[in-house]
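Sat 14:20. Reprocessing the chain from the morning session after the first attempt stalled halfway. Input below, unchanged.
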Amino acid sequence: MAQVRRFNPSTRGSGEATVYQAWERFARGEDDLRGVRPEIAISWHRCRDQHRVDPGLTEAPAAVAEVGHALEHDVVFAELGFRAASLAHEVSSLGGIVTITDGTGRVLAHWGDQATSEVAAQANLARWFCWSEGATGTNGMGTALLSYAPVVIRGAEHWCEAFHEWTCAGVAIRDVVTREPIAVLNISCWRGELPGTVGAWLGNTATMTQRILRRRAKDDGDELMAAFNHVKSGSNAPLAAVDPAGRVVLADDTAGVLLGIPGSTPAPEPTVRWKPELPEFIRAAKYAAQQAVRNPGWSGSTQIFTRLAHEPTSISFRPVFLTGHLVGNVVTFGVSEGDPLPRSAEDAPLRAQPHRLVATRENRMVLLPLTEVSFAQSDGNDVWLSGDQGLLRSALPGLDRLEAELTDAGFLRVHRQYVVNLSRIREVERRDKGELFLVMDDPEQTLVPVSRRNAATVRRALDI
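Finished this time. Tokens:
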């Protein structure tokens, strides 16, 4: 890394002054964000309007005392700890510190320059304090948890003014299956700038760490597929193999129809997981995984409504372990064996549905009533909203997160790249080979494809 450049905190360059002036306006309640990077503008919006973080906050709050994480994530913390410790001397020579947090933003460890560590301690940038955006505003660790690429937060881009003399760069390590954050590796400098190569270094570290997770996911998937085939050899009942998050590694043809996912021919690659269109099934699978972790000899059953069925179907869970850790469950349909799952485990509490979505146009936030949104389309990690005001970028990254936000709000996932507003479908077009396309009523009357796995769900939702 290049030598760090120090600056005088009493003076601001023109670019930093522009950001600081925008921060002052936005913290006062104005929405003028000229000169602010879009990703920072989106983060500020979350901090002010969603999390209501006080911009005058001077120190991070204490983290929740007990935060559980999967045992297999320990390998991530160990790998990041090794890489952070090996870099500590170099970062220390630049006057910086390296920190590791878990997926909630709780600081687990830090290394680096002693003088900088003492300054950091005054802001509670230390073990067992929380640096999520919801707790401490825009910062390298918390904002990285919501990003799919390395982030750099400079000076006045921090939401809390007390942190404006810091420059931070962080990257999240994500589960290769669920894409949920597991940990963050972050480098911070006080009254200095980080080398221009820091983003690339963090990105490479994340890639190398996630290769370990990918190998682990493949081993877990292979073990689940082997358990599936073993049970299948002695049973004619429909079967599925699911991971602890309720995602399906493999299902036979009948179970695939019931769950609304592809069947077993050909078998998927073990790291590929399918998300069933049945929230009740996913909740039951998560509960079964929790029970199996506590008691490896546990098995259980419940009843759920499956696709294309008017009566509930019995399902049973049988846990599968690999070298002592749970990799998932084999689920048998039409069979009731083991402890009954409590109904409370299946009944998720109702949550308030959003009345609008937040999008960005240049440096402004656009608040869109749901009725004005025709459909959402993913482009990598970005999500674009199409509707009465044209095409706007969503403030929420990732189509999965947007889909979860709009559950039961009249929107439906019809393709891996599209979520549509059912009330904004103008026509349904059927092609020669049976493909379905939805003609939306946005200004361009866009044709939205329906994937084969979602075709039955769409027909049922539209009653066609």
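Residues 218-346 form a domain with the Beta-Lactamase fold (CATH 3.30.450.20).
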